[in-house]
Design a protein that fits this description.
about 110 residues; mainly alpha; 4 helices; 2 strands
């Protein structure tokens, strides 16, 4: 579902005028580099993306048509950091997350 979730998030960002610069879906979380217009707060933007994407995922992929009360797709929290001069470093970090996660898993399995 990673590609489908990416498409949903790209479409929701486009609707809000938020630029999705870089993104990568991991097994249990997502990294995104967003350019949010100053008229929107980070909290409202993330709330919109998580809320609307969860509804679409439930409807389109999990066959839930109504009654979303009590259902959860995303975790409650999120981590945010503002980016200035380090944008390229953040882009590189996001692109390399899957490779790094696999490397860390191999180290754990090897007992290192």
């Amino acid at each position: 579902m990673r590609k489908e979730i990416g498409g949903i998030l790209r479409e929701l960002c486009r609707q809000q005028g938020v630029e999705l610069i870089e993104g990568y879906a991991m097994r249990d979380h997502i990294h995104m580099l967003l350019m949010i217009p100053p008229k929107y707060s980070v909290a409202n933007t993330i709330g919109f993306l998580k809320g609307k994407s969860a509804i679409r995922i439930f409807r389109e992929y999990l066959q839930v048509k109504r009654n979303f009360t009590g259902r959860h797709f995303w975790a409650r929290g999120y981590c945010v950091s503002t980016v200035g001069l380090d944008e390229q470093m953040i882009r590189t970090y996001i692109k390399n997350q899957e490779r790094e996660e696999k490397r860390q898993e191999q180290l754990r399995l090897a007992g290192l």
